[in-house]
Specification:
0% strand, transmembrane, single chain, Growth Hormone, Chain: A, TM_effector, MFS transporter, globular
Length: 446
């Protein structure tokens, strides 16, 4: 059992003055360090399994639509349990909630591995288990985020969010690449099994936590508790604004569904181009976290959120502009070879997406900080649950926007127009909301 207290020490901690990521949270709280390290290692395995399940279903069915059903089937359960997981985090010991959800995810991954070793070629168990793993991950995520402010003083929450950005960036870049190598070399069986082993790291981070019971009167898990959370959100304009701005960014600035077509008929390069474009945003987020040391000194965090999302919109519009210019480059027909790709345009497009990932990560650092610092502890789990719903649903709204618009317009239209929409809408909303614009990190109010 860890010696870490339930509440962070009250003595003021000065964030680092270095440009590089502030490692003080890892030194200040051994419990946070174990939780963060366990999440990073197990998250790599989780990303491996996400990729492996898609490849496995495709091998069984030879159908791209069948692969897409993994996300479609899991969406509604993820939304439902994102909300319910937040309720549980405000009703019980958060360490216990995270531990039970972790056991469910680990056991489901172990069953996946067993199916692979037994060479079961029926698809429905993979859909079911992938959904259960996704649901458990949402519950773990919302619970973990509600635990962090109990382990660290509020001055270190931006640094903790930046460290989380490094963790997520590493997961997204390492996990899928490792999955591809393992599936190609040793097969699905060992890929799932490696995830089962890596998941043990998550348990080490959770088990070592102290008992973390929500502050205030505990609510019975149920609809009334959810209603209380929604009522609080209506009276929390700053927190609500972070959700609104994030939905705008994710709805109009998620061009990922364009990547296959861009790689095939616009920039060329096929699957390699898709991989480069997909990894670019994650790499940008990773580097922005590494260089996040000064963010802990930003006082007016509402303005910072607005500025970061505006920059995000500019980079997305820049990506669309690259596609517009490339549409007249003379590339004709389907081009799968990277040697035949428009390499200068591909490089610039990757830079634009890396910039968007960096800006989105900076926005995420401040939005998470506002959420963790301004929301009372007894309400934090439920609001984190709503946050998980926004994070889950926003990109899928973006997929729908891009998919519908690209059916009637050139490939460059959705990102270029979407980026402009983001810049205009976010600038207008933040400028018109004085309270959010003057949100003070030294006196956080929801």
């Amino acid at each position: 059992m860890s010696e870490a207290p339930q509440k962070p020490a009250t003595d003021k901690v000065e964030p680092t003055r270095s440009r590089f990521v502030d490692l003080t949270p890892l030194k200040r709280s051994p419990a946070f360090a174990r939780l963060w390290g366990g999440a990073a290692i197990s998250g790599i395995g989780g990303q491996m399994t996400i990729v492996a399940v898609g490849l496995h279903i495709y091998e069984i069915t030879q159908s791209t639509f069948a692969v897409s059903l993994v996300g479609i089937i899991a969406l509604v359960p993820m939304i439902v349990f994102g909300l319910y997981g937040g309720i549980l985090a405000d009703s019980f010991d958060r360490r216990l909630v995270a531990l039970v959800a972790g056991i469910v995810a680990w056991a489901s991954t172990a069953v996946l591995a067993s199916l692979a070793w037994l060479r079961v070629d029926v698809v429905w168990p993979f859909y079911l288990l992938a959904t259960v793993i996704a649901v458990a991950a949402v519950v773990i995520g919302s619970t973990r985020q509600s635990i962090v402010p109990r382990l660290l003083p509020k001055e270190l929450l931006p640094a903790a969010s930046a460290l989380n950005g490094i963790s997520v960036g590493a997961q997204i870049t390492i996990g899928p690449a490792l999955a591809g190598v393992l599936v190609a070399t040793v097969g699905f069986q060992w890929t799932y099994t490696v995830d089962v082993v890596l998941f043990v790291a998550a348990f080490s981070g959770i088990v070592s936590l102290p008992k973390i019971v929500p502050e205030g009167d505990l609510k019975r898990p149920g609809f009334a508790s959810l209603v209380d959370g929604m009522r609080f959100l209506r009276s929390a304009p700053n927190v609500r604004m972070t959700f609104i701005l994030d939905i705008i960014a994710m709805t109009f600035g998620q061009p990922r569904v364009l990547f296959p077509a861009v790689g095939a008929v616009l920039l060329g390069g096929g699957a390699i181009t898709v991989g480069i474009l997909t990894a670019a945003a994650a790499i940008g987020a990773l580097f922005s976290s590494i260089l996040s040391g000064r963010l802990g000194h930003v006082r007016w965090q509402g303005r910072a959120v607005g500025s970061a999302i505006t920059v995000y919109g500019l980079f997305i519009a820049g990506f669309g502009l690259v596609l517009l210019v490339s549409s007249g480059s003379g590339l004709h027909g389907i081009t799968e070879s990277i040697g035949d790709a428009n390499l200068p345009a591909l490089a610039i497009a990757a830079v634009m997406l890396a910039g968007s990932g960096a800006a989105d990560n900076v926005s995420s650092i401040f939005r998470n900080t506002i959420l963790q610092a301004a929301v009372p502890d007894g309400m934090r789990g439920r609001i984190q649950g709503v946050f998980m719903v926004v994070v889950t649903g926003g990109p899928r709204l973006g997929d729908a926007y891009i998919g519908i618009l690209s059916a009637f317009a050139f490939l460059w239209v959705p990102p270029l127009m979407g980026g402009v929409f983001i810049v205009v809408l976010v600038s207008a909303i933040v400028r018109g909301n004085k309270r959010f614009r003057h949100y003070d990190a030294l006196a956080p109010t929801p």
